[in-house]
Amino acid sequence: MVSKTINSLRREFRPLVLKCMPYFVMSYYFMEVLYSAVNTPLVGRERAIVMDVNEVFGHFYTSFDVLLTIGAIILILGTRKEASGVTLLLIGRVVHRLFFSIWTMFFYFLFNDSLDVGSLLLLMAAKINLREQRDWFQSKYHLLLLGGRVGLCSLFIIWMDEGVETVFSIVSFGLLVFISLGFHCKLFAFLAVVALLYHDVFSNHWSMLWGWNDTLLSIQYFSLLFCKIGGFLMLSQLGGGWWSVDGYRNRNGGKWQKKGNYRIIKTQTSA
User: Fold this and answer.
1) What is the mean pLDDT of residues 90-94?
2) TM spans, by residue (predicted)?
3) Of 128-137, 163-172, 178-187, which gets the smallest average pLDDT?
4) Residue 212 — φ and ψ, nearest 5°?
């Protein structure tokens, strides 16, 4: 009775997560747009200073970035062309990194962007899953799961690099190994959400959410937290896919089951 109740709740929870979490992921990009739109003079001036160009070009680039992101959000959430929307976001991200990266912190930005890309790839996989097109796009679907899983693992590398707590570093390493390999991927993805809440909300890092004089900036950091949570919750429902330990075990289990059924049928026929 209890197991049936749990299974029914899980069946109801799964589509809800896959429908809602894309909005969690895109909330980060929406807040980027909102912050740039509200603080256009400041953002444009800052970017012009960083690029060492005229202030007009800084404002032009800011407007271009805002319009590009708005177009991507509409494509991802409002149409079935989420692949085009994700492509636009990635183009904007690459251009932004080329202009504004601090090259001495290249690997930090690389892992941060990998985390964003991982969430976007899982968003695309969730959309395919909801439309029940997995059989049509099998190879693409499982490649998205692989890329999303590996991209999200960059978060654990960032945590280990921080080296705040020994115990938490061990937890981060464990999550990195199990999720990257896709071993009990759904379980460890859910545990990663718990670790994420501890790291960003209940530890010393809480000041990154609350410790800003600018309310919009605080909301933007909250949206970044939602983006990470959305990625891991989608992974907790979608699983590791073919290219994971779980996928390998499922394929082998299916083969053994087919062999067992064949033997039973053969025995019955002989009898």
Assistant:
1) 87
2) 58-78, 90-111, 141-160, 167-199, 219-245
3) 128-137
4) -120, 145
Which amino acid is residue 255, in one-letter code? K
Surface-to-core class of residue 255, CB atoms within 10 Å of its CB (0-12 exposed, 13-18 middle, 19+ buried): exposed
Q: Given the structure tokens 């049936």, which residue do they identify?
A: 4
Answer for the pair 122, 144: CB distance below 8 angstroms, yes or no: yes
Tell me which amino acid residue 133 is: Q
**What are the pLDDT digits (tens) for 234-269?**
999 998 888 889 888 887 765 545 544 444 444 444
CA angle 198, 22, 75 (to 5 degrees): 145
- Give Cα 26 to chain centroid, integer Å: 10
Amino acid present at 37: A
Per DSSP, the residues of 99-115 read HH--GGGHHHHHHHHHH
Token look-up 């939602």 returns: 226
